[in-house]
Design brief:
The structure is a single chain. Helix 5 runs parallel beside helix 6. The protein contains 25 helices and 30 strands. It is of the alpha/beta class. The chain binds iron/sulfur cluster.
Length: 805
């Protein structure tokens, strides 16, 4: 059958796919609005003209002032009519948006699975510009040079695989030592008005430069990489009004550590946090990035800031002046990069920066926020260790030039007084550019002179890749970091390490005291002559006066690498770290019947579901990494961690029982409590349960990214309609869906209720209701077996039709 080009075009629209082999920013208009940039900046500049044109259509339908986040997000919607017409303005929190992100960034641990999935789709190149960053697999131990050499030796097969994928598909490859994903994105790719996806939960860091940047799993990244619209329920908008100006010891970090205390780890779920108010103009671009970065700790979809002079200064300082000019023009002429006058937020929180004091958050959760003036009392009251065991600064969150220069001012003060840190001090530069610049400006010498250890430009201790030498393993101890996340065992693998988060300035002041109750605003240190003195508040420069140094140019990839289709992807069949993927089976078309393998008690983050640390090395080998599935979870019925019981009462490690039940052909479900899957956007936390035979997660509530990840892998995520029903179901109980087929066949997308029949081992039966949030596309994923299966099916259909033309 011959198909006309018009029909093919209509089919493409219905499949929502870009033509194979084409690449470019999402663009749907040739309107003569021009914000041109030189060719070498083109793929790093959002298609402002097209975005403005689309935004006009959005305005025509919604007919109300829009917030900044709405403008950027809605102007990336694939089909404005479909998304917004006939909804009577019920968009936020209700409407699913199909979006065309402009760019994708992937870190080495999550990129492996994203690329293994992308490979199954059979494309020659990615549909949008993308980058790979080798940062998570580098261990922090002896210092940058040795650590880097050792980590490259241990991880070479993974780096070779990633490099070969980058070459084949035309993806930028930032090798080990080049820096941490979010710092490199900020320095190179984030731009006001950009929409990007990143396979890491701290991708929102790019919001410091006015982007809408969202952390996703690898399967979501594959949507963007294949040009398949990426779906997101339109978030609500939480406005944070900043007034006043930071001063003294307070830093941008305190905005978000304070806010985390107000919102808790769940308070931002379903929201974009949009900052506004006079106080915004006083913040540095990198300070705003820190604030956006840690928006992930309150569960926010992302965070963003309106365009400021400091963003312009940062763009110019990072050699992107033409992009700064284009952003200034699009904002000055059209007001695109700020909220409309009269735009309404779903909620507003106000923070007066002039009154904000430093905060310390933790241990074990980023929302346990204590103002510095009350921290000594909290240490006493809670029985936290009174001695500090180590201080760590840097990471993707706080390694800006401004952070480092303020820290250097404290270190220099201490040197003048003849004192040294009382505990080990570690510094992680966020990128080669930061490393080279702080070395050039003498900060590194000051740090080394103080006895600090400068680690590689990589994640290291922030993600459990910290080989500690100080014999604290297994012992209770307290560390202070300027990192962003502090779940138990996150840094050194020791569950007894109490990890507190604060600004780099406060970490640095505290290491000179070594006392957890020290408050540099009022407590004095003793100098080398035995005299008491008070540290002066830190001083620093927003940007280097003599400019950023790029350091080792060998790290810089081509700006627009072309795909090399003949390149071979390097995967050894004998590898225990990489394995090509087999597609999951499609849905069998009948009601599900499964058994409860585990009832999880309490907090269950993606760290509990798919532990990092030593397991990171198996990210590209689904079978091997699945041996870590839920090993951190607590069994509600026995209080044991990593213990599940078979029908005859025999106890197993949780993944062991999953493997046993899989081999017996017994599908299973896991029950859990609130915010299941909070924390890092860890795709394996969905892939591994699916691989081991999991069919359903039933809990009191989900973390957004993880719920989406489950849907993408063909697992049914449900929440109890009545939370108390959690108590009705016991381990090994049989759960049957009674009307799943009705929901799937009638395409009852959006939200709805599914009825479950529960039969406990003691014979007691219960009919309970559970809620789903499956969209139409997600129903397709479930039917196909996974999102990747669905995309592959669509692509094969299209190729078949194109061959008939
Ligand atoms: Fe790396 Fe930590 Fe940043 Fe994640 S949060 S990207 S692990 S430095």
């Amino acid at each position: 059958m011959a198909i006309s080009s018009r029909n093919l075009h209509m089919l493409r629209l219905s499949l929502r796919l870009r033509p194979i082999g084409t690449r470019g920013f999402a663009s749907h208009s040739s309107e003569p609005i021009s914000f041109s940039v030189p060719p070498e900046f083109k793929t790093r500049t959002p298609p402002y003209a097209a975005l403005l044109t689309r935004l006009e259509k959005v305005r025509e339908i919604l007919n109300r002032p829009l917030t900044l986040a709405e403008k950027v997000l809605y102007s990336h919607v694939v089909d404005v009519e479909e998304a917004f017409a006939g909804k009577n303005g019920h968009i936020r929190g209700e409407t699913y948006l199909k979006l065309n992100p402009d760019r994708v960034a992937m870190q080495d641990a999550s990129a492996q699975m994203a690329l293994l999935q992308f490979m199954t789709c059979g494309m020659d190149s990615t549909a949008v510009p993308a980058s790979i960053h080798c940062d998570h697999l580098i261990v922090g131990h002896e210092g940058a040079k040795k650590d880097l050499q050792a980590s490259i030796a241990v991880n070479s097969e993974v780096f070779d695989f990633l490099r070969s994928c980058a070459l084949k598909y035309g993806i930028q490859f930032w090798g080990p030592g080049s820096g941490i994903i979010h710092q490199i994105v900020l320095e190179n790719f984030s731009v006001p008005g950009l929409m990007m996806l990143g396979t890491d939960s701290h991708t929102p860091n790019a919001g410091g430069l006015g982007a809408i940047a969202i952390g996703v799993g690898g399967a979501d990244a594959v949507d963007a990489l294949t040009g398949t619209p990426w779906e997101l329920k339109a978030p609500r908008i939480l406005g944070v009004k900043l007034t006043g100006q930071l001063n003294g010891w307070s830093a941008p970090k305190d905005v978000i550590t304070h806010l985390a205390g107000k919102l808790t780890v769940r308070g931002g779920t379903g929201y974009i946090i949009e900052y506004f108010g006079d106080g915004v103009q006083s913040l540095s671009c990198t300070g705003m990035a820190t604030i956006c970065n840690m928006g992930a700790e309150v569960g926010a979809t992302t965070s963003t800031f309106p365009y400021t002079d400091s963003m312009k200064r940062y763009l110019v300082a990072t050699r992107r002046e033409p992009i700064a000019d284009a952003a200034s023009a699009v904002n000055n002429i059209h007001g695109y990069l700020r909220a409309d006058v009269g735009a309404e937020y779903d909620e507003v929180i106000e923070i007066n920066l002039s009154e904000l004091e430093p905060h310390i958050n933790g241990p074990f959760t980023p929302d346990l926020s204590t103002p510095l003036s009350q921290f000594a009392e909290a240490v006493e009251k809670n029985g936290w260790p009174s001695k500090l065991s180590a201080g760590l600064i840097g990471s993707c969150t706080n390694s800006s030039y401004q952070d480092m220069s303020r820290v250097a001012s404290i270190v220099r003060q201490a040197k003048e007084k003849g004192i040294k840190p009382k505990v080990p001090f570690f510094i992680t530069p966020g990128s080669e550019q930061i490393r080279a610049t702080i070395e050039n400006d003498g900060f590194t010498d000051s740090f080394l002179d103080a006895g600090a250890k400068v680690l590689a430009n990589a994640c290291g201790p922030c993600i459990g890749q910290w080989a500690r030498d100080d014999e604290t393993m297994g012992k209770q101890n307290a560390i202070l970091t300027s990192f962003n996340r502090n779940f138990r065992a996150r840094n050194d693998g020791n569950p007894a390490t109490m990890n507190f988060l604060t600004s780099p300035e406060i970490v640095t002041a505290m290491i000179y005291s070594g006392d957890m109750k020290f408050n540099p605003l009022k407590d004095k240190l003793i100098d080398a002559d035995g005299n008491e003195y008070l540290l002066e508040p830190p001083q620093g420069d927003e940007l280097p006066q003599s400019g950023f140094k790029q350091g080792d140019l060998g790290y810089l990839p081509a700006i627009d690498p072309l795909p090399v289709p003949t390149a071979e992807v390097v995967v050894s069949p004998a590898s225990d770290r990489l394995a090509l993927l087999e597609p999951f089976e499609p849905f069998e078309g009948k009601e599900l019947k499964m058994n409860v393998l585990l009832k999880v008690k309490g907090k269950c983050t993606t760290d509990h579901i798919s532990a990092a640390g030593a397991w990171l090395k198996y990210k590209g080998h689904l079978e091997n990494i699945s041996n870590n599935t839920l090993i951190g979870a607590m069994n509600e019925e026995t209080g044991e961690v990593n213990k599940a019981y078979d029908f005859d009462g025999t106890g197993y490690g949780i993944p062991e029982l999953m493997i046993k039940w899989k081999s017996e052909g017994r599908p299973w479900a896991v029950l859990a409590e609130h915010n299941y899957g909070e924390g890092s956007a860890r795709e394996h936390a969905a892939l591994s349960p699916r691989f081991l035979g999991g069919r359903m997660i039933l809990c009191k509530s989900f973390a957004r990214i993880h719920e989406t990840n489950l849907k993408k892998q063909g697992i049914l995520p449900l929440t109890f309609a009545n939370e108390a029903d959690y108590d009705l179901v016991n381990g090994c109980a049989t759960i049957e869906t009674l009307d799943l087929l009705q929901m799937l066949n009638n395409n009852e997308a959006g939200s709805g209720v599914i009825t479950l029949k529960v039969t406990n081992q003691d014979g007691s039966e219960h009919i309970i209701k559970a809620k789903h949030t499956m969209s139409k596309d997600q129903i397709e994923f479930f039917n196909a077996g996974s999102a990747i299966n669905h995309i592959g099916n669509l692509r094969r259909q299209r190729q078949g039709l194109e061959q008939h033309i």
